[in-house]
Design goal:
By secondary structure, the protein is α+β, with helices and mostly antiparallel strands. It contains three helices and eight strands; from the N terminus they run βαβββαβαβββ. Strands 1-2-3-4-5-7-6-8 form an eight-stranded mixed beta sheet, with helices on both faces.
């Protein structure tokens, strides 16, 4: 039996097995702690009955500064999936979906318009998992490496799921994989 709970600092010593996947981004300890202190309600772990971490979701809420609201790439207040990973032996069990729903609930509580995540174009498993979200745009060469070796970088799909605040679906787009933007169009 797996249960979800809030991430705790000591969990940093127990997430190695979930981070061994080559498609999982690994961060330094400061990065994890920054998320834990700034967005604790959006940092969730899945734990089995033996206390092993079987997956985690690291998210945040953010929005572009007001001066960007009249630009064509403006991002309103929204949730973002920074990292979602499930240990290989626990995949295809619905755990990723449970972690995602936990993040969506947290973002609803913070009145976000949508939840987004960036997925490598070549990560067909993740694209399939999130295809119900829809691709909002393609960020060309977002990732600095391309595991296929075809080119220097790999595109990311900015995938979005509207939340209850976005009743008119203003922040969703059809055929978004054909709407190309450069990484410099994103505000960070």
């Amino acid at each position: 039996m797996t249960s979800l709970r809030a991430f705790q600092p000591q969990d940093l010593l127990k997430i190695n097995l979930t981070n061994l996947d080559p498609l999982t981004e690994n961060y330094n300890i400061d990065f994890y702690l920054h998320y834990l202190t700034k967005w604790p309600s959006l940092f969730t772990v899945a734990e089995d009955q033996d206390g092993n971490i079987t997956g985690y979701m690291m998210g945040k809420v953010e929005g572009d500064p007001p001066w960007r609201q009249f630009t064509k790439h403006f991002l309103p207040w929204h949730g973002h999936v920074t990292a979602l990973t499930v240990a290989p032996q626990h995949r295809r069990s619905g755990l990723a979906q449970s972690l995602t729903k936990a993040l969506e609930r947290g973002c609803e509580e913070q009145n976000a318009w949508f939840v987004d995540l960036f997925v490598r174009e070549g990560n067909k498993t993740a694209v399939g998992l999130y295809q119900g979200l829809g691709v909002f745009r393609r960020v060309v060469d977002y990732y600095n490496d391309d595991p296929t070796g075809r080119r220097a970088g790999e595109d990311a799909f900015d995938m979005r799921k509207p939340l209850s605040r976005d009743k008119k679906l203003k922040h969703i787009r059809k055929n978004g994989e054909n709407f190309r933007v450069e990484p410099t169009d994103l505000y960070h």
